[in-house]
Amino acid sequence: MLWTGKTRSVDDIPPSGIPPILFSSTLRLFCLRCILVAGTVAMTFQIYRRAVPEAVILGATVLHHLLSAFGPRFIPLYTWLDLLLMLAELGFGIFVAVVSFSPRMKKYQWLSQHLVAGDFIFWLLTIMLAALLCVKVVQLIDARGKLLSQRLDILRDRVSDSPGYSRLRSIGDGKSISWWRYPIHVLFGRKIWEQQLPGEASWMTLIRGLLALLFISSLSIFGLFQIVLDPVSEMGLTPNRVFRTERLDQNYRTTTPIVWNLIVIWEKHPGAPQTLRESISLTPLWTIRKRKNSSQGPFGPECSAITVTQDILPPAVNASRFDVVIFYCRPRILIPPDKAHDLLPYFTHPFDTRPNLFLEANFTGLMSPGQLPNTHSDVTSDAMRVYLAMTNNTEDVLLTTRPAYLFPGSNAIGVADLIYKKDIANDYFSLHEGTKPLTPFGIFHQLGSQRAQVSVSTVEKYRGLRSDLQSLKDNPGLLALILDTLIDLDVVAEEHPHGMKSKRRLNAKLRDVEQELSAEKQDSALDPNQEDSAAAPQRLIRSNSNGSDAKRASRDSDSSDEGEELDVSIEGETNEPLLEEQRRRLNLVGTSSRVYQEAQQ
């Protein structure tokens, strides 16, 4: 519940008995987004000719709520008109939801799974429309009817005279807001698009927001299948049942004429007297038609065979090691050339087009001299691999099809399932320095320009950050453990990143000098017995360089006229705490330049 700083009258007191959650704008935005998504998905189930009116109404519903997302500044949609449209949309949703379970529809004992998803989406749309309508009615009651003549504002606070634009303006620190911020906030939220670090590039924020939207969408779709579709499918009851049929309710076309291919592979044995082509034969045993004499068969074409060469085999099947024979078997009935790509004859004549084949093999001629077929036979070397396929691409069949094994002296078939599992990972993202388990975007923060920008902007906003980090290093504890394992602050802990430009590096050193002077002034104000301020320039130079440079800087300050003038200026500044900011920065330029030159050396 959001409140404004205005004085509220007795009429502005919220009605008693109404739950506070109904005044929440988050609830209104959730209902609006669900309506937009459910309405768009429901339109995909109304793409056939008889459902054109339903698709038009759903499109109008989505358009209505999409226009309301652009706010009162652009769309002249008044509250009373919005309520009337929502009542009409809710009535349509209830009508369709009731008709889907009417006695007229119950004559179908099953529905496919995608139709169950369509019914669920329609019910979700109806429920969200009812929820949003109730929330808006409560909002109207709270405003004592004052909103009827105003334009629709989905981001309106609980107070009737506080529009959603004031909220966006308060979020933007009172600055004027762009025209696109209102619809973006309504449609895609706000938190996922905010910068996580000061000075972070906008493209990183955009990628983070898109990934968050993708993650939310994936969770929603996964929940739909796991909570609704899969449980209904497992029950095996209406309105869902898995299709198992030999015929299709509509016709499909193929890219090539259908031919049953039988591929046989045998591993060669040394000294075998026969080849695979000489040892096997394939006979089509087509089903005999009624009132036909079986002795007059076969009633269809014979199968043709070819010996395969290496050019049509995958590299894993070497022709010098394996014998491969392919049988081409056409259907028994004659299919006209104009229907060669049509699947309809294969469903209207199932017994005339299904393969009924008898494969006979003589293993004796395939074995090595002195080796009997039934001794030491194994799947690897003494069994034929038989593939049944409907494509002429032999390489694809051998790589993607599971074969049936034919052993010597038996027609038993054994199948071994192999399950491959691979953990998808990227070693570069896992091993790259600067990344922590909960900072997947840390790799982008390591870029030179981005690292410098984040470091400088962070120090400008949090001046005590580096001192706090140093104290954690001196006395490590729970916070140090969290920083080492969960949160990556190395990108902001570096004092002056190498990717920083020379001008920005000089400004950073200038800020360090100012912080040192501020600390000196605070110490002198707290300790009256402190040593005189004439030693301040030497301490200042010593804190920003190593020991040898500090001694050299001290000698230079005693011998150089420029150094004397610089010491006097800083000493005067130390004794004058109310010196203006501009004068103080001018006096520090010389000191920062010397420190910068020494750092470069």
Automatic annotation (TrEMBL):
Source species, domain of life: Eukaryota
Coiled coil: none
Transmembrane intervals: 77-100, 120-141, 210-229
Sequence ranges of Basic and acidic residues compositional bias: 513-524, 549-558
Compositional bias (Acidic residues): 559-574
Disordered: annotated segments: 513-601
Keywords for this protein: Membrane, Transmembrane, Transmembrane helix
Comp. bias regions, Polar residues: 589-601
Full protein name: Uncharacterized protein
